[in-house]
Structure formats: structure tokens, C-alpha cells
Amino acid sequence: MALTQRENASGHFVSATFENWESEFLQMGMYVLLSVSLRQKGSAESRPLDPSQEEDRVEYGPTPWPVRIGGVWLKLYEHSLAIAFGVLFLLSFALHLDGSWRLESVQRQLDGKPPVELWDHLASAQFWFESFQNWKSEFLAVAALVLLTIFLRQKDSPQSKPVEAPHSQTGT
After folding, report:
1. How far apart, in whole angstroms, are the C-alpha atoms of residue 142 and residue 168?
2. Phi then psi dihedrals of residue 39, to 5 deg
3. Taking burial as the number of CB atoms within 10 A of a residue's CB, which of 62, 65, 75, 93 is the most buried?
């Protein structure tokens, strides 16, 4: 479906697209960060409850350059997945804000109202409603995945425990 000139110029497309992407990157970033420290007994998505039961799964091969160099590069590399999702979230948030603000500006102009400043739009209930309505669904999806993997199985899926595994088994 082609965008009309008005939808494109108003920021509607940018707002709607990046509002969705923002929640996706927030979901994945929080999933990565929370899975580091939170545990759920029986969930295939959880690391073992007892840290002594964890095992490093390092295969032999060329070591990535940040590991060889060490220092700040190693620290950044150790957290690079969360950093990447954080940057993608912030970029999507900024683009959502810009598109949503442009859309509101066009709507206010059509209604004969004065334009609103970007920072006023950022503080508006409408902007936060747009963000929170997507964020809540993303966290519900993650919670459902973590909790449903306690009791349900999907053969050959890395998100599922083996079919024969007891419900109490944590991890894959």
C-alpha cells in the first residue's frame, strides 16, 4: 500500500514504524539483560538456578580481536549485545518521537492551533501512550515464552527443553 504525500510528510509512517521497532528493541535488550541475572525454575529460557551447574560452551577457533586486545575493548565486547540493543532502542525512540511530533504538528496546523515544541510533545500523554501500548505487549510475550516453556515443548527448538525433560528442569 503506497503512502499518501500527507502521511509521508506528516510523520505518520515514521512514527508508526519506529514506535513498533522501539518496543521490539526494548524487548530484546531487556530479555538479554534480565536473562543474565533472573532465573525461573523449569523454564527452558533460564540459565541453571545454581551457578556451579553452568558450563562454558567455548569451541576452539580464532579468538575475536577484542578478547585478544583486552582492556576497554574487551569490556565493550563483553556487553556488546546489550549495548547494540540499547543503541537500536534509543535510535528507534528518537525516530518515533520525531515522526510522532511531525504528525501532531500537521494535525495541529490543520486544526488552526499553534505548533507544539518537540520537548512538549515528548512530555505529552499521547506520545507515552504510543510507546507504552507496544511495550506492555512485548513484555507479555517474553513472560509467556519464559513461563510456557516450563510445561510445553517444541521438538528440535532451541527455545524448548527436550521433550523428555521433567517440568522442573531449568535450561535446555
Report:
1. 19
2. -130, 145
3. 93
Q: What are 85-117's pLDDT values in tens digits?
A: 999 999 999 999 999 999 999 999 999 999 999
- Locate the DSSP E strands across the chain: none
Task: List pLDDT tens digits, range 125-142.
Answer: 999 999 998 888 888 888
Print burial letters for 43-69: b (CB count within 10 Å at least 16), e (below 16). Answer: bbbbbeeeeeeeeeeeeeeeeeebeee
pLDDT for residue 164: 84
Closest residue by Cα to residue 131 from 96, 156, 159, 102: 96
* Phi and psi, residue 115, nearest 5°: -65, 155
